[in-house]
Design brief:
Blueprint (H helix, E strand, L loop, with lengths): L12 E4 L20 E3 L2 E2 L3 E5 L6 E5 L3 E2 L13 E4 L4 E7 L2 E6 L22 E5 L20 H8 L15
Antiparallel strand pairs: 1-2, 1-6, 3-4, 4-5, 7-8, 7-10, 8-9
Length: 173
Amino acid sequence: MEFSKENIRPGMKVKIKNRHGDSWDACGEMDYLKGTIIEVNKVLEDCFYVKNKNEDDIWILKYDDIENIVFTKEDLQEGDIVTDRKGDKSIYCEKDGEKYFIGDTADFRYFDNDLKDKDGEIEFDIVKVERPVKLETIWERQENETVEMTVEELEEKLGIEKGKLRVKGAGVE
């Protein structure tokens, strides 16, 4: 695929080609980019911007510096969410050497290495893979915790003069 201003957009992920040999630039500052997948930041007529690894600077790349990302079955990781052409989603799982999907997607063994349906039924082709990376706690059980304190500790915690606290109930004298 030839990339140009017409078919690249901000937010798109592309892979950096290693077309510069041992060193990308005279200082080697951009060498870490070779072979990596990066996100396009801004698109111009004959080049585009990406943020560098420190997020504090911007690199300018040419369209022939990138290639399309090729994703295969081997790239899947446990927990990846796959979506087929119909919009059905499943979670990729591995257990005891078995690889499978949990959800509405066809059985894992019915896909070629390029994640297309082996029988050519394109509605079952996997068209998107999402990798959840940030686990956010949405609920956690709160246990009722009993706290034991002496009257002196409670007076100190509450800032009450010693001997002035009287506790009612709960079996306290």
